[in-house]
């Protein structure tokens, strides 16, 4: 049985009571413990800085050349918090409810309420660090709206909120590096987890510059390595984003939860051809003032695609503002899964725009007329500039073209209430874990979760584990488990380098991405998923027999890096398909065509599928074992989601 360790008692008191009941490590003893933090984005940097400030010895690892290069920097639109500065009816409970509902009732109540509860502290923490949040005329912090909510609770710094928040966490981390409490390893990638007596006691890394394989010991390991959206090849993630650290931990015994829950973001610059290696996000905040539409007729859309007419030539009466038409209460601010599916339906109906036809319009004409171009520029100027640089189209003069793209993964490593995985001593924070977003993440909640986990949760919960170890002695780095695990990593590296086929790693990755998008993307069927599983198994064989990995290990070798990551993506991709196949319902971002309402909305099956699917690795080419964590709802009523 999976033990989520959710504390008893009323929802609003669970976290407070739990903190009191957790065991503490006194300040003198904290100096005797070492904690490894893998990944230095918002979750990792905030956790490392907080733990070092408390007195622990911290070792951080990132594969970038600096912690400030983490993908958290790419987040644009904002961070949610239940401050209720707008006095518009927001509260901790409303943020909790919106998050539970937005995730289509597939997340733990206790975790989500804690997230909403500590959200108010995050803003104060970041302001104290100097994060330049936007302010209104009176000097108070400004807020804007995001999808899935009818209140304004999103704090922002123009379109670069992630960058500013990461700089705040990075400055706190740097302070601890300077003090000697944090030892920072850059350009190092975690390739395996070292286990001693069933507990996580260290990691194996590869120096990406020299190729040296090293082991590092600690009393606890925190994985803060982000999501796995690049399994689809094309996504809004940075090209380096991968699943390797989490997947290698999974193969050591950490259960992987809800892998099929993938978020397709509705507001991205459309694909233009096979030359692309990634896609570009356009912040959901744009839907505050941008209106989504397509032509009402296929004939008019066809004329647009041929270039016979332009968007501005189409009269208002000939435009279908389909989100406003179908969801009058929320309009363009419906959650991401709803907006994405509706954009796909419009394109499938032959009313897509752009040369490829795989796009819809996001139009700011009404907002510019109402607010003035200067006001729109002040809100979204850097986003408009980015769009112009990429497309050579001026969004002040003509509508943006957008289309859904893979963005965020709600699934991840299974964790309990303390953020510990099924491996004692191994924790997962931020997007790396599955815990808070259910089947669909509300916009502006990723930054909230990463910082909540790092600043306000893990400093309490990791101490409880360390206090119970019963020893302050350093981890025995001479233990044979370190050398044995290092040798296993080197053997896999040598196996990859021995492959001398005819296909590049990118060739295989693109094929995998096509399979995943086609059969495990925005719409899924049992038949398609079964086909995808067979195709991935064939592709896996092709990879291990016909891929070509260039170079040697003892050097900077991007081909080797990619090969290891794609090998893990192939295994993960199959598990995602298996997970999607067994979940014969629609919920949030997981949309099974066989399970929809008469109006085409996601149709849940709460009697059979109100659980977290947690998968246990059983061996190479052996089916994984499914474990179920039943979801219990005591404070919200499970209803059919409606944003009408």
UniProtKB/TrEMBL annotation:
Biological processes per GO annotation: anaerobic respiration
Record localization: Cell membrane
Cofactor: FAD
The EC number(s) this enzyme carries: 1.3.5.1
Keywords, ordered alphabetically: Cell membrane, Electron transport, FAD, Flavoprotein, Membrane, Oxidoreductase, Transport
Name the record gives this protein: succinate dehydrogenase
Keyword Transmembrane: no
InterPro entries listed in its UniProt record: FAD-dep_OxRdtase_2_FAD-bd (IPR003953), FAD/NAD-bd_sf (IPR036188), Fum_R/Succ_DH_flav-like_C_sf (IPR037099), Fum_Rdtase/Succ_DH_flav-like_C (IPR015939), SdhA/FrdA/AprA (IPR030664), Succ_DH/Fum_Rdt_flav_su (IPR011280), Succ_DH/fumarate_Rdtase_cat_sf (IPR027477)
Family label: Belongs to the FAD-dependent oxidoreductase 2 family. FRD/SDH subfamily.
SUPFAM superfamilies: FAD/NAD(P)-binding domain (SSF51905), Succinate dehydrogenase/fumarate reductase flavoprotein C-terminal domain (SSF46977), Succinate dehydrogenase/fumarate reductase flavoprotein, catalytic domain (SSF56425)
Chemical reaction(s) catalysed: a quinone + succinate = fumarate + a quinol
Protein topology in the membrane: Peripheral membrane protein
